Structure formats: structure tokens, C-alpha cells
Amino acid sequence: MRAVEGLAGDPGAQPQRTMLAWNRTMLAAVLGAMLVALTAERQQRPVIAAIAGLAALALLFLVLRDLRRWRHDGHGPWISLLHVGIAVVVLAGLGATLAIAGLVY
Fold first, then answer.
1. Alpha-carbon distance values, 16 to 58, 59, 60 (Å)
2. What whole-number distance in Å separates Cα of residue 98 and Cα of residue 31?
């Protein structure tokens, strides 16, 4: 890719945009976990609802903590990437558990 002439850009802005993008993805996972919790509650599956609700709170805590810890000193997005990966796996597991529980009963 070729840079646009005349636009030097801000070298510190790209890492910040990357960090904010990872945090938006994590917030989407929080909303997904809340949706799984509400769906489990409607299907009268309190254990799955409790686990999904606790997962949503834990994910929200991680998002807020990562936003506060971000610095321009090279902290990097890797810890946020790890948190997003874990969030996606947990959300997929909760959704699959809810779907299988719905099929069994």
C-alpha cells in the first residue's frame, strides 16, 4: 500500500486506534454474553444464565482495566488480543451449551 502524499499522520494514533478496536470487540462479546444470559433465563436455565452473567461482568472488568492500562510506552494490543480470544471461546461455549440444552429438553 502506498501512503497518501502530504499526509504524514500521527504515529501514535494507530496503536491507540488498534487498542480501541480490540476494546470494541470485547464490548461486543460482553453484549453477546448478556444476550446468552437473558436467553438462558427465559428458557429457565438458571445455571447457564448465572455463568453467562458472571462471564459478562468479568469481560466488562477486563475491558475497563485494559482501557486504563493503555499507554504509549509500547504496552501493545497483545494482552487485549488474548482477552478477546478468551471472550470469543467462552461466548461460543456458552452459546453451544445453551443450544444443546435446548435440544435435549
1. 23, 20, 19
2. 16
Q: What is the 3-state secondary structure (H, E, C) of 14-55?
A: HHHHHHHHHHHHHHHHHHHHHHHHHHHHHCCCHHHHHHHHHH
The burial of 18, by beta-carbon neighbours within 10 Å (0-12 exposed, 13-18 middle, 19 or more buried), is given as middle
For residue range 30-60, what is the model confidence (pLDDT) as tens digits? 888 889 899 999 989 899 899 989 988 888 8
CA distance 56 to 41: 14
Better pLDDT: 79 or 25 = 25
Distance CA 81, CA 13 (A): 18
pTM for this one?
0.70
| Residues 6+ positions from 59 with CB-CB distance below 8 Å | 26, 29, 30, 33, 83, 87, 90
